[in-house]
Amino acid sequence: MTLCFLRRETVCLRLCPLTTPNFVNPSGFVTALLSTLMTLWRHRKSTNLEKALDAYSSCLLWIADNNLTIRRDVLEGMARCCTKLGQRDRALDLADLLSKEASNTSHLTSLLLLKVSIYQHFGAVGAKMSSLQQLCSLLPFNPWHWFSLGQTCLQLLESNTTTGSISSKRCETTEKQVSEETEEQEEEAAELREDRVWLKACTCYIRTRLLLRILRQQQSSFVLQRSESVLQITEEALQQLNPREATLQALTEVMSEDLIPEKMREDYQDGESLTSVCLQSFRERWWDKILLTGVLATDGTRTDTKS
């Protein structure tokens, strides 16, 4: 069966056969259409991505206002297509739409992961780090987000790009926002200094190691194998970063303060309403404490990391 959407450009998709009840039922129709769109997405070719993007846009017209789940899936699919097609601003606009509709921790997690992929694709390292830090604040006991943030910091150090500022915001031209954005950019520039990126990498790898050691007793063999592999990479990264023993001890003390089994089980249940979640920022919960240890003054100025 071929369905055509009449817009500025006609988009034709050949769908799998639809039974009469499904065709009459809008939800059945949309489900079938989404299945086809996912097939297009898997091809990951420019021509197919353009077709998928047009079809996603058409699909929005068929989705009921109260069908938020499918609407979010479609918007995310559109954002990922735009990212692969190099349409940065449109991808971020779609992410902004998703952020306005986020109502629970699952929505926010998906949104932040989407932003990470967008920023990574376009090389916005500062923005990617910011999104990963938000993920760590939202899911503080998830070792994989901490590991990703550590890897990003290490890659940034290795690429020698820490001397410049990489803004996580798109440029705006309104005069009211100039002062505020300049302040944000100055803060981001400070956070991208080599010594601070080095310290954040050490911090993230130490947190990853702590979490994996706690959680591996509860993991299945498949997940445990992955954990052991990441632990090995973490140890090698810490050897490369080469912090002093006093630094390791100070960072371990700060990053283990909230690793209480009871708290880890209760905090931030998946799907919890955002209205009932009190989130501390990455800076408030960990980074300010890390800076207060004074390790930057005694260890962070060193550049003799092992290669």
- How far apart are the first and last residues' alpha carbons, in Å? 59 Å
- The assigned structural class equals mainly alpha
Low-confidence parts lasting 5 or more residues at pLDDT below 50? Answer: 1-24, 161-177
Specify the biggest β-sheet.
Answer: 2 strands, antiparallel
Principal-axes geometry comes out as globular
Order of helices and strands: EEHHHHHHHHHHHHHHH
InterPro entries: DUF5588 (IPR041404)
Pfam families: DUF5588
What are the main properties of this structure?
single chain; globular; 2 strands; mainly alpha; 307 residues; 67% helix; 15 helices; disordered N terminus; two-stranded antiparallel sheet
Could you give the topology of this structure?
Elements: E1 2-5, E2 11-14, H1 20-24, H2 26-43, H3 46-60, H4 68-84, H5 88-101, H6 105-121, H7 125-138, H8 143-158, H9 178-191, H10 194-215, H11 221-241, H12 245-255, H13 261-266, H14 282-292, H15 295-300
Antiparallel strand pairs: 1-2
Structure description:
InterPro entries: DUF5588 (IPR041404). It holds the Pfam family DUF5588. Residues 169-179 have a biased composition (Basic and acidic residues). Residues 165-187 are annotated as: Disordered. Helix 2 (26-43) runs antiparallel to helix 3 (46-60), helix 3 packs antiparallel against helix 4 and helix 5 (88-101) runs antiparallel to helix 6. Strands 1-2 form a two-stranded antiparallel ribbon. Helix content is 67%, strand content 3%. Mean pLDDT is 78; it is low at 1-24 and 161-177. The protein has 15 helices and two strands. It has a domain at 146-160 and 190-307. It has 307 residues and is an all-alpha fold. The longest helix is centred in the middle third of the chain and has 22 residues, at 194-215. It has helices at 20-24, 26-43, 46-60, 68-84, 88-101, 105-121, 125-138, 143-158, 178-191, 194-215, 221-241, 245-255, 261-266, 282-292, 295-300, and strands spanning 2-5, 11-14. The N and C termini lie far apart (59 Å). A hairpin with a 5-residue loop joins strand 1 and strand 2 (11-14).
